[in-house]
Design brief:
It is built from ten helices and five strands, in the order E-H-E-H-E-H-E-H-E-H-H-H-H-H-H. The chain has two domains: about 5-140, Response regulator (Rossmann fold); about 145-205, Orthogonal Bundle (Arc Repressor Mutant, subunit A). Helix 4 links the parallel strand 4 (about 80-85) and strand 5. It is elongated, with a radius of gyration of 18 Å. It is an alpha/beta fold. The protein has a five-stranded parallel beta sheet, sandwiched between helices.
């Protein structure tokens, strides 16, 4: 029998972690070697457990899934990261892909799809939820000069949540001047003149979601 794939489950909801572990236990080639409640814990466990693949949620306390993905891959580039989340906004997808995630799956995916995605990621493929794949394809077809960057989408997402420039700067660890520059680029790319119009246009195009 071939070596089993060692998995680390990272999610801030205990019920989700328990459910995933129970689901994966029935597969002879898959083995959950650890659980993490946030990104920081996932980074620490990867140092000691050296799993083959991490099932990574995105939005968690302490350290989110994107930051954890970047840190894990910087220290252990051989580990595969498969994002498993409820979020499918362009900002979430882009940030995860740019961080080096091997694949992106939504939590409502059938279990057989999850199992197949794990094995595909370990085989060097990049499994993507169909909805996620269509979003990425749409971005590929968008002229580069009109496509918002991952950081610009992050800024716009926070604007949609009602954050001020100062709050955005603090949350993204950038200066207020940089926030203003990002907003100017966003306005130009979306063909709008202010924050409200930018959010409205982004929601209409599916770039962000409330």
């Amino acid at each position: 029998m071939s070596r089993r794939i060692g998995l680390l489950v990272c999610d801030d909801h205990p019920v989700v972690r328990t459910g995933l572990e129970g689901m994966l236990a029935g597969e002879p080639d898959l083995e959950v070697v650890g659980e993490a409640a946030d990104g920081r814990q996932a980074v620490e466990l990867c140092r000691t457990l050296r799993p083959d693949l991490v099932l990574m949620d995105l939005r968690m306390p302490e350290m989110d899934g994107v930051a954890a993905t970047e840190r894990i891959l910087a220290e252990n580039p051989e580990i595969r990261i498969l994002v498993l989340t409820t979020y499918d906004s362009d900002a979430d997808i882009l940030r995860a892909v740019e961080a080096g995630a091997s694949g992106y799956l939504l939590k409502d995916a059938p279990r057989e799809e999850l199992f197949a995605a794990i094995r595909a990621a370990m085989a060097g493929e990049s499994p993507l939820d169909p909805a996620v794949a269509s979003r990425l394809m749409r971005r590929v077809r968008t002229p580069p000069e009109n496509a918002l960057s991952g950081r610009e989408i992050e800024v716009l997402d926070l604007v949609a949540q009602g954050a001020s420039n100062r709050e955005i700067a603090r949350r993204l660890w950038i200066s207020e001047t940089t926030v203003k520059t990002h907003l100017l680029h966003i306005y130009e790319k979306l063909g709008v003149a202010d924050r409200t119009a930018a959010v409205t246009a982004a929601l209409r195009r599916g770039i962000i979601r409330l």
